[in-house]
Amino acid sequence: MSPILLRTRVRGALVASLATLIGATFVVLVLRRAPLTLTFSVRHATYQFEPCWPLLATLCLPWIVFWAYPSFAAIGRKQKALLVASRGCLVLLLGFGLSKPERQLETRKSSTLLLVDVSASMPDAALKEADDFAQAYLSVHRANDEFRKAAFDASTRMVEGSFLLARGTNHAYAASDYGQALRMAMGLELSGSTRRVVLFGDGNDTHGGLWPAAQRLLDQGFELYVVSSSQPSRIDVSAFRIELPRRIERGKSFILRGALRSTRKTEVTVKLSQDSAPNARDPERKLTLLPGLTNVSFETTAEREGPTRFRLSVSTEALDAFPENNETSLVADVEGRSKVLILDSEPEHVANFADALRAQQFDVSVHTPAFAPVAESEIAHTGILVLSNVGVKDLSSASFSRVDKWIHSGGTLLVAGGPVGYADGGWSGSQLEALLPVSMTATQLEERHDVALVLAIDRSGSMTGLPLELAKSACAATVETLGPTDLLEVIAFDARPVRYVSMQPVSQKSAIIRDLSRISSGGDTELFFALDMAYQDLVAASAQRKHVVLLTDGQSPTSGLSEVVQGMVADNISLTTVGLGTGVDVELLRRLAERGGGRYHAAPTPDSLPRIFIREAEELMRPPDEPQSYAVRVMRQARFLAGISPGELPRVSGYHRTTPKPAPSEVVLESSRGEPILARVARGAGWVIAWTPDLHDRWAHAWLNWPKVGKLFAQLFREHQDQPTEQDLPMQLEQSGSHVHVVFDATREDGSFDNDRSIALTVTSTEPNGSKVIPVAPTAPGRYEAEFTLDKFSDYRLKAQHDLIDAEGKRHLLGQSKGQVSWSYPEEFARLDPDLEQLNALRKLAQTEPISPEQLARNLPAKRSHAESLRSLVLLGSLVLFLVDLALSRVRFRPPANA
Fold first, then answer.
1. Nearest Cα to 845, choosing from 218, 198, 220, 229?
2. Mean pLDDT value of segment 866-894
3. CA–CA separation, 346 vs 358, rounded Å?
4. Can you say whether the dihedral through the CA atoms of 313, 318, 323, 325 is positive or negative?
């Protein structure tokens, strides 16, 4: 390198370094004041760079000149200068582009959208008023302000001319979707710095989306003004709604309540009809309606069973704007009273049973067997046939053949006993026995003993010595007192029981005395296991009288004792308790004896034990003063037993002994002797039920005086008629036009939330194939909800089935809910008066007041800054400079001077 060139390069480097140092000092001073943002104003615009650190790229400009200028020796000096300048500008623009440059301008332009409700509830005069509002605003607004018009009903559309001509079709104008209109306003590209929406309407939103859309509109910076028409609403009368009781029974009068709406004081005629027939009691009424709602009520009676349509209509001779809303209706399921026919040889003896069924809303007839149906038409309307105390000679073969056919077609037959019932009435081997779920030939019971006695002796540590020896002596004395065919068992217990003498006849005296001598003392006292062992052994024993004598000298835990005693009583086992000494729990032993149907004996000293045991044995040997009775046990759970505890079933004094038939016959209730009390079997589409006691006071006295006898038999009959036996559970309905919201609150008897329920909701309309199932979901503890939309104008019945899901996942029918809704005409025709309350609430939300066109035009928008990004311009300039750089570096426009 020549000395001259070297000196030139050194001077260039010094100049570039000095320029970089000066630029770095300037940048440091600027960054100290605004380390991230650089802002400056030029004329009426403000420019901002954030972040500004990419502008440090300008420090590279002196070195670009220093290194690039000598490298372009092959081109001309002017071209070389342009190339260096373009490359430096390119670096500078890239730095500006990375700094996100923005330009902010201040404007006062406004954009206004006039949004007008043109639905049916808006009278023509109100739409003319909206046109006048638009014309008045256009005459006074500023020239650069933007103004647009839109109309909405069920849909929203832009309008150029009159709003009156913008009404939609009959289907569209019968709705007001305020929410969709406000959402459309948000979607418009309004260019003004201030965006205004003037909502002109009556506030009757039929779609329910107004409030979310209004809040979102305000959140996006729009100004919302609400203007209502000063014109009166149209003259119109309408049938608004019908309310029916939750349950309607055929032939039973009830009050139907309705509501009528009018926009003016008007004379009207109101009519009520059932299906197509006028209401029998009060078909027509003249009324004077005042503005608003007027309640009206009719006393009526359902004339037939099944789905019945109740229609309420109103008419007037005055001008009526919308005849479409003059009628509303509701369909309800009218319940018919089930017919029960009781045939009894002694009809006067079943009066109590018939009255119990009538109290459960059954239509009961009681006759002698001579009244047996002789024609199919006579039995066709009977739901339940009861043959009580009827012999084979009382019923002809032809009559029974018709009964047989009726059962297979869906009827239910209950056969009850009595003096001439079952085998005593000659029914063995007959058609009736073939239908019954039991055979009239009783099984041979094993030999029954007179007495079965269990002696439960405390052998805990406190009984050591004389008390235990005297207790064994008392047991031996009992053996001498009982008869040879009586059964005896001796259990000695401490913390656990031991059978020292198993259940055996007392005739084996020597063996029993030998086994008693083996009893020795042990540890702590535990009564439960000893009583439970005695209970289980006595249940298996065959004896007319079963008894337990419990001896203890101490105290014991009480858990489970009440349940064991309750089970013993249910199986005809009595209990006597003996407390030895002063350390016993007297209250516990006395309570157990009272509940067990026995006696409590206090034995202050051990020498009194033999006398007490002998007295108990003698009491058992004495013939009973009262006639024999039998406990009734539940062998199989059934729906008709809902709400009835097995322990509260009354006893029976007697019954016909029968033998259960194999499946599909099933025994639901049996006696403590293990023989059927109530059995059932399906025959064709019907049922045959066997009740082996009678329905008289002879054997079923305790049942007929039991408060729940009517409930049990009512649930029994309704279950086998395929009618719901469950409780009527509440259903909450909220309807807004075609939208229906259903709520179920589920609680248990103790008041806790029921979260294990499954609910199936069926909605049925009057249209063909108009049934569908709506999903019901839990939404909170004990709360289940469903929402659905009605498809068309019709009447709808709602029925919900409640199932309880147990721990094993099995379903148990719990109850049902019923309701009705009606969608007789569009919601737009139900509310023709302006909803001033909703309009005022909307103004409060928008924080605005009613405004005139002049006030709207004079209300100049505030200065607003409008940010405009410059990155696209910077990137475009960088692309242009890049192309210029390529052209200057690759194309020689003019040869150098020394070429």
1. 218
2. 70
3. 19
4. negative
CA 33, distance to chain mean position in Å, is 65
Q: What confidence tens digit (pLDDT) does each residue in 306-332 have?
A: 788 899 999 998 888 888 889 999 988
- The CATH number corresponding to 727-829 among 2.60.40.10, 2.40.110.10, 1.10.238.10, 1.10.510.10 equals 2.60.40.10
Distance CA(629)–CA(618), nearest Å, equals 21
Whole-number Å distance between alpha carbons of 68 and 73: 10
Q: Using CA atoms, how far apart are residues 826 and 156, in angstroms rounded to an integer?
A: 18
Paired tokens of 447: 């030999």
pLDDT of 257: 92
Q: How far apart are CA 603 and CA 671, in angstroms?
A: 37
pLDDT score of 676 = 94
Helix ranges restricted to H, 207-270: 210-219
Question: What is the SS3 assignment for 637?
Answer: coil
pLDDT of res. 374: 46
Residue reference for tokens 């009517």: 710
Domain ranges of the chain: 3-105+872-890, 109-233+834-862, 237-335, 339-440+629-720, 449-621, 727-829
Using one digit for the tens of pLDDT, what is the confidence trace for 581-615? 877 888 888 888 888 888 888 888 888 888 888 88
How many other C-beta atoms can be found within 10 angstroms of the C-beta atom of residue 599?
18
Q: 735: which 2 tokens?
A: 């309807």
- Is domain 109-233+834-862 in CATH 3.40.50.410, yes or no? yes
> What values do phi and psi take at 200, rounded to 5?
-115, 110
For residue 216, pLDDT beyond 60: yes
Residue with tokens 């009992």: 478
pLDDT band at 4 (very low <50, low <70, confident <90, very high): low
Residue 558 confidence class, pLDDT cut points 50, 70, 90:
confident
Per-chain mean pLDDT for the chain = 82
At 482 the pLDDT is: 84
Please state at what angle helix 61-71 crosses helix 77-98, rounded to 10 degrees: 150
**pLDDT over 70 at 165, yes or no:** yes
Measured distance CA(401)–CA(390) in Å, rounded: 16
8 Å CB contact between 237 and 289: yes
For the cut 80, the answer to whether the pLDDT of residue 764 exceeds it is: yes
The predicted model scores a pTM of 0.48
Q: What is the largest CA-CA distance in the chain?
A: 154
* Helix (DSSP H) and strand (DSSP E) numbers for the chain: 21, 43
Tell me the fold of 339-440+629-720: Rossmann fold (3.40.50)
Tokens at 562, concatenated: 């009440």
Compute the radius of gyration of the chain from its Cα atoms. Answer: 49
Q: Do 758 and 805 contact (CB within 8 A), yes or no? A: yes
pLDDT tens-place string over residues 638-659:
889 988 888 899 999 889 989 9
Kindly state the helix (H) or strand (E) to which residue 126 belongs, with its residue range.
helix 124-140
The CATH code for residues 237-335 is 2.60.40.10
Helix (H, G, I), strand (E, B) or coil at 330: strand
Return the residue matching tokens 């000679």. Answer: 393
Equal CATH topology for 339-440+629-720 and 449-621: yes
The CATH fold assigned to 449-621 is Rossmann fold (3.40.50)
| 691 beta partners | 416, 678
Contact, 829 vs 171, CB < 8 A?
no
Residue type, 107: T
| CA distances to 19, 68, 488, 580, 606 from 511, in Å | 129, 130, 12, 27, 25
